[in-house]
Amino acid sequence: MKMCIACGLPMTSISDYPQHDMSKNYCKHCAHFDGSMKTFDEKWQNLTLHYANHHNIDYVIAKDIAYRVLRKLPAWKRR
Ligand SMILES: [Zn+2]
Asked: Which of 18, 38, 52, 70 could form a disulfide with 31 if both were Cys (CB 3.0 to 4.6 A apart)?
């Protein structure tokens, strides 16, 4: 089983892949409509809003948590 390099989501079925393309190593949530991978800044923004909205965390703190979570993932390690 593969894990998304950009967000860590386990990709268990073909529907988790962008455009059902199993050669990709990132999930549909990390892809644009054309199938290309989102940038670090886009994922950072997505995840910050996710934490802020779903976990009721202050936006500034959510941004910090999101940054640290993303930095652990293979897609962003070299940044
Ligand atoms: Zn992903």
From this structure: 18
Tell me, in angstroms, the distance from the centre of ligand 1 to residue 5's CA: 7
- By the 8 A CB rule, do 39 and 6 touch? no
Who surrounds ion ligand 1 at CB < 5 A? 4, 6-7, 9, 27, 29-30
Q: What is the pTM of this model?
A: 0.86
- Mean pLDDT split into 10-residue runs, the chain, 79 residues: 94 97 96 97 96 95 97 87
* Centre of ligand 1 from the C-alpha of residue 79, in Å: 17
